[in-house]
């Protein structure tokens, strides 16, 4: 009888110890302190709404689409702020990337509004800038490197293709040197006809064609590049070459042109051309169209650099891995070589949210079946893969 009682007491002791150890193991598996502190438990559905909150020493990349001067790489400093080359210091600690993007956009808009008049005054001398009305009707002036095709009717021996030389001239049969640079095609055409008529031919019919002509489009909307000029090219036709004209509306469009021996800038506006408030100026060979996205419309992109997560427990390759793009639970498990032969389908994701911890409990088998969502893994997350009980 006494022996039986001793055995029964030992059994209850083991059960109590096992229960205590199980509770301790559970807390350890969650990465929580053992002093009774509890973490908020989230479901996979709730985890879908979670966003990463920036922490001290995080490195971020800030890009302002359309404005290279707004790009920066910076670190969240000990005081919780980041430093931007245009805006100075502003708070980042415990904020989401989207909140930071919105804040930067607002501050850039404010700065642009304040500095707009000063910027326009210092960009270019006023004498180099023309309105569309002032530039309307300008005719291309030949430059060195231009290729011309010259035809004389019923005189094939005089018809040829030539390049304008570096000194701005070209050679033509019977006439010798002809000046081309700084003159229009019609002026060159007239000189050849008059000189031939004066000494060699009766009423010669001369035609000069400029071919291989191109214009360029730069900026951050549409597809920048160089395009051929086909027929009579105007601004709207040229802009439409790089995308849908409706999506390319912008407050500022500049046409950079070499004219009358100097560089000029024609300031125009696609919206106003579409509405008939400005003339649709012609695009000439070698013109460069700059689609300037106003900073008030610029979209900011903030990206975390070098974000990592850690995976422990029953996986084949536990360790710390880089988050590239968007990494979800299944992708994270795959990076770690999958669940080991001793692992169960249950996992816990331990996450720090500000000064608090949250734990996301999930079941891989349910995610694979589509019963639970495959939620994202955020930087600094720790994934713990549980061991099978039997």
Walk me through the topology:
Layout: H1 2-29, E1 40-42, H2 44-47, E2 59-64, E3 72-75, E4 81-84, E5 88-91, H3 97-123, E6 129-130, H4 132-135, E7 147-152, E8 160-163, E9 169-172, E10 176-179, H5 185-199, E11 206-211, E12 214-219, E13 225-228, H6 235-240, E14 252-259, E15 262-268, H7 270-274, E16 288-292, E17 300-305, E18 308-313, E19 319-322, H8 329-335, E20 343-353, E21 356-363, H9 364-369, E22 382-387
Parallel strand pairs: 1-21, 6-15, 12-16, 18-22
Antiparallel strand pairs: 2-3, 2-17, 4-5, 7-8, 7-11, 9-10, 12-13, 14-15, 14-16, 18-19, 20-21, 20-22
Describe the protein.
There is one protein chain. This protein has 390 residues and is α+β, with helices and mostly antiparallel strands. It has four domains: 28-52 and 307-387, Outer membrane lipoprotein wza domain like (Outer membrane lipoprotein wza fold like, Roll), CATH 3.10.560; 63-121, no CATH class; 125-138 and 213-292, Roll (Outer membrane lipoprotein wza fold like); 147-211, 2-Layer Sandwich (wza like fold), CATH 3.30.1950. 26% of the residues lie in helices and 30% in strands. The strands form six sheets. A six-stranded mixed β-sheet has the order 1-21-20-22-18-19. The two termini are 35 Å apart.
């Amino acid at each position: 009888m006494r022996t039986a009682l001793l055995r029964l007491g030992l059994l209850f002791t083991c059960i109590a110890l096992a229960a205590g150890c199980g509770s301790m193991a559970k807390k350890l598996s969650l990465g929580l302190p053992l002093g009774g502190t509890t973490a908020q438990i989230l479901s996979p559905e709730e985890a879908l709404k979670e966003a990463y909150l920036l922490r001290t020493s995080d490195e971020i990349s800030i890009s302002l689409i359309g404005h290279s001067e707004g790009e920066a790489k910076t670190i969240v400093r000990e005081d919780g702020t980041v430093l931007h080359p245009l805006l100075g210091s502003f708070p980042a600690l415990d904020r989401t990337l989207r909140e930071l993007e919105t804040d930067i956009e607002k501050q850039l808009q404010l700065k642009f509004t304040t500095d707009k008049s000063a910027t326009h005054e210092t960009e270019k001398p006023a004498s180099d800038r023309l309105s569309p009305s002032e530039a309307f009707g300008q005719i291309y002036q030949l430059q060195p490197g231009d290729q011309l095709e010259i035809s004389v009717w019923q005189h094939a021996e005089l018809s040829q293709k030539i390049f304008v030389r570096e000194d701005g001239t070209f050679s033509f049969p019977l006439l010798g040197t002809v000046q081309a640079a700084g003159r229009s095609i019609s002026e060159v055409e007239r000189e050849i006809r008059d000189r031939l008529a004066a000494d060699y031919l009766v009423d010669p019919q001369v035609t000069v064609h400029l071919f291989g002509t191109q214009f360029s489009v730069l900026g951050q909307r549409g597809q920048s590049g160089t395009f051929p000029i086909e027929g009579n090219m105007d601004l709207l036709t040229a802009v439409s070459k790089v995308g849908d004209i409706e999506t390319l509306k912008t407050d500022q469009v500049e046409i950079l042109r070499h004219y009358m021996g100097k560089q000029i800038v024609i300031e125009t506006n696609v919206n106003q051309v579409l509405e008939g408030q400005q003339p649709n100026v012609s695009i000439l060979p070698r013109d460069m169209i700059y689609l300037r996205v106003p900073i008030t419309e610029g979209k900011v992109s903030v990206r975390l650099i070098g974000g990592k997560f850690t995976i422990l427990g029953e996986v084949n390759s536990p360790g710390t891995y880089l988050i590239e793009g968007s990494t979800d639970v299944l992708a994270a498990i795959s990076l770690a070589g999958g669940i080991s032969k001793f692992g169960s389908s249950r996992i816990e994701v331990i996450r720090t949210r500000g000064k608090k911890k949250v734990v996301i409990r999930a079941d891989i088998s349910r995610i694979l079946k589509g019963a639970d969502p495959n939620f994202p893994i955020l930087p600094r997350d720790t994934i713990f893969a549980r061991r099978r009980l039997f």
